[in-house]
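Quick one, tokens below:
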């Protein structure tokens, strides 16, 4: 009976809020302004009541309404059946920082939150960038640390680097979720700090426009030059949580503003910051995705940055960025915001290749079977590798894309096959295809690849992979500790230790 009353009270509050919203829409302009202030107050009061009466998340979950999608796990493939492995390149890292947020809060992430490639691609590598070409292809490997009788093969794609002063001018349109849910855990506070870091790193020729959305979307600031940075900073600081979540209207206004101020030969990008949950207008990611694909074709791209635990939609944020020809990251701390918006800003903003695909062809005389670790939701049909109408991935300046394979070799590791890379060169607007031999010497893994193998195995264990059922977190920890070289490596070691403690 108590649970029934809790649910009834919550529905009653939502009903009155909806009625109030309807009355506001029909009022005069002066009445609407007064009513908006009242609605903001009511929203904050409702948020407080909601937190007080909200029942525990269902099915034993630690956080309510966390939306992820299960993509399965790649199997081993016999080269007698298929010699080709084809997938879209991916530089997203959101899955890793979502996992980190779970672990730091003292709970394990659900299996479906794990995407192995986003764990691996979170970490910088020692691979050299090309000096003249768009990409450099690196292939190396050695005996696997976890699969007895197998080798671990790395295909590393390193994009060309662009100096800050050589970056294109950027026209950025911030689309900021200010709905009531962004008041939880002071999410909007972290958004403000994060966007201020981004603005501080921009150049004088760049400009920023701001759209916000709660129950309705509205333009807060028309595109403004960084020469007027104080105006931009003030507009960000004044944001307050309000109303429901009309992501569709917010994105529509953001794209319209970006289109109105579109500049040739510049970066025209919409930057969405949100917890990803929409409950007004079009709320499913399939419907919203259909509205942004045309803009991507017109060179208005989309990057998404997620915030919050509980009431968070990883599926929407990841798929929006994928279809908007941009990148997805999850910001769980100010340190992560600093990493993305200071240390990696040029790569985050400037795209060097679109619709990029990788195809690895294994020689059946040399390789018995293989398995790609991750990229399950980036799979491309082999016959579509050279079909340029099929969507691939987008890669920013200086980014590295790492693909790891477990392979069973028949003889030695020389001349195992060929790796091909196909993409639209953003500078020349021409489709290019490059290739490299698939071979490596020796059985010892390079030290940075040893570390990445620990990261990949950690992800496989957390994700419940069948192929990691014989592995242990203790063996992952031992390898990670022995191969760690940088600050972020040691932070990963601590995460593994925390995970071991949580699983006991």
């Amino acid at each position: 009976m108590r649970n029934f009353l809790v649910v009834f009270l919550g529905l009653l509050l939502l009903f009155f809020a909806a009625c109030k919203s309807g009355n506001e829409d029909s009022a005069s302009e002066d009445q609407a302004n007064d009513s908006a202030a009242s609605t903001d107050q009511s929203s904050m009061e409702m948020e407080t009541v909601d937190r007080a009466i909200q029942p525990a998340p269902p099915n034993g979950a630690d956080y309510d309404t966390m939306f992820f999608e299960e993509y399965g796990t790649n199997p081993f493939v016999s080269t007698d059946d298929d010699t080709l492995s084809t997938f879209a390149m991916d530089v997203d890292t959101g899955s890793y920082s979502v996992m980190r947020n779970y672990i730091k809060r003292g709970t394990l992430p659900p299996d479906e939150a794990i995407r192995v490639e986003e764990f691996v691609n979170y970490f910088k590598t020692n691979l050299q960038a090309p000096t003249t070409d768009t990409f450099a292809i690196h292939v190396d490997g050695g005996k696997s640390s976890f699969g007895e009788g197998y080798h671990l093969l790395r295909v590393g794609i390193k994009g060309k680097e662009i100096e800050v002063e050589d970056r294109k001018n950027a026209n950025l349109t911030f689309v900021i979720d200010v709905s009531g849910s962004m008041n939880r855990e002071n999410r909007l506070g972290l958004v403000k700090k994060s966007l201020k870091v981004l603005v501080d790193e921009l150049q004088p020729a760049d400009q920023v426009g701001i759209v916000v959305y709660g129950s309705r979307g509205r333009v807060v600031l028309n595109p403004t030059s960084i020469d007027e940075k104080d105006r931009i900073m003030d507009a960000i600081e004044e944001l307050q949580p309000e109303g429901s979540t009309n992501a569709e209207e917010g994105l529509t206004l953001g794209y319209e503003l970006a289109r109105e101020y579109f500049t040739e030969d510049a970066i025209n990008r919409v930057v969405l910051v949100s917890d990803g949950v929409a409950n007004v207008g079009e709320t499913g990611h399939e419907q919203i995705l259909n509205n942004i694909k045309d803009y991507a074709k017109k060179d208005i791209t989309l990057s998404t940055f997620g915030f919050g635990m509980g009431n968070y939609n990883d599926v929407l944020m990841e798929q929006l960025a994928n279809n908007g020809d941009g990148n997805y990251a999850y910001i769980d701390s100010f340190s992560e915001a600093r990493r993305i918006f200071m240390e990696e800003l040029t790569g985050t903003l400037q795209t060097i290749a679109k619709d990029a695909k990788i195809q690895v062809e294994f020689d059946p005389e040399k390789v018995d079977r293989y398995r790609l670790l991750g990229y399950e939701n980036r799979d491309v049909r082999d016959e579509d590798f050279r079909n340029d109408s099929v969507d691939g991935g987008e890669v920013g300046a200086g980014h590295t894309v790492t693909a790891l394979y477990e392979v069973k070799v028949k003889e030695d590791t020389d001349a195992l096959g060929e790796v091909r890379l196909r993409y639209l060169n953003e500078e020349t607007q021409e489709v290019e295809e490059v290739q490299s031999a698939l071979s490596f010497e020796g059985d010892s893994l390079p030290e940075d690849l040893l570390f990445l193998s620990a990261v990949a195995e950690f992800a496989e264990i957390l994700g419940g992979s069948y192929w990691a059922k014989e592995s242990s977190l203790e063996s992952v920890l031992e390898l990670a500790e022995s191969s760690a070289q940088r600050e972020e490596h040691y932070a990963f070691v601590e995460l593994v230790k925390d995970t071991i403690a949580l699983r006991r």
